[in-house]
Amino acid sequence: MTRWSPLALVIGLLAAVNLYGSTAASAAGPLTVAQAISQQNGASATVRGYVVGQPTATNTVVRSNYPSDYALALADSASETGTSRMLYVQIPTAFRSSWGLRTNPSLLGRQIDVTGTLSAYFSHPGMTSSTAFAFATTTPPPTTPPCESYYTVACDKTGAALKSALNTIISNQRKLSYEQVWDALKVTDQDPDNTSNVILLYSGISRAKSLSGSTSANWNREHVWAKSHGDFGIATGPGTDLHHLRPEDVDVNATRGNLDFDNGGSPVPEASGSFVDGDSFEPRDAVKGDVARMIFYMAVRYEGTDGFANLELNNSVSNGTAPYMGKLSVLKQWNEQDPPDAFEQRRNQVIYDSYQQNRNPFIDHPEWVSAIWP
């Protein structure tokens, strides 16, 4: 019969506890980013989070113009901007071509699982010696995302109170000139597969950034909220707000004109999947939600308090030059039908980081559309 010393018994019990704890943690699934940040103990773990940029220093994460494929930052929310709530992930050489942001900028906003060692990187909570990267295929993001610090004054509000709170938040913006919009669109709408091109909104075509202009085969600046609806033209403010300005083919832009949005019509030859009739325009399915959320943004941002018209939504497609856009019921459907994708989320982040320092809240929280317009 083997005799165990008291010390050996203690060691054995601790080993059993550790083994059980490891099994239990594994069965519970990947760690959240918050859990990984609090467990910087050199252990091996799998962490699930949203790609929110590339760390370049202890307190710096970039979300465009990535300098390399060496690292990425994860967070528990795709719209997180606070570096203290991010995990910095070192990308080993073998994974850089597939998971580095310079080569794969469309990863921004995607939820992924990374396995590696929980240890500091850039003198910041991180993961090193990563052995596996994969897109998350289970545990979808919550239906109602948490109310981030940027939106604190809007938390738990609905209806007119929510609309007013969001207006207060997003009205604090840096304004661009109409000339500056040209260069900004070359960054906000850059083709993730070809950095020399932009993606045109309605047509979906990738076109050279250098072909910006006013002649056929060029692309120009499309005002998704038609600038005649409220007669703000190209005035600094609503006329230059990047949250509703997109690159589009000159001819397609002219076809859309100042029409309201609705379903139906005849096909637009230069923009496959888009339709037009005498009083409305229907964009292709892939950007229906994008269009809707840009319109909702404008209706919240411009409330008639800063020298411009009070922009509002209605259920009409005959708004002419009145400060209204429709069709509200259809735009609400489009918001549900086409949720924010990585391109739209990246665009929102770039505008916030590099240009206006304000966000489109309906990209971060598409559920707020029905909370304001039930």
Automatic annotation (TrEMBL):
It comes from the Bacteria. It holds the Pfam family Endonuclease_1. Coiled coil: none annotated. Keywords: Hydrolase, Nuclease, Signal. InterPro entries: Endonuclease-I, His-Me_finger_sf, YhcR_N. This is Endonuclease YhcR N-terminal domain-containing protein. It comes from Lentzea flava. Residues 31-135 form the Endonuclease YhcR N-terminal domain. Residues 1-27 form the signal peptide.
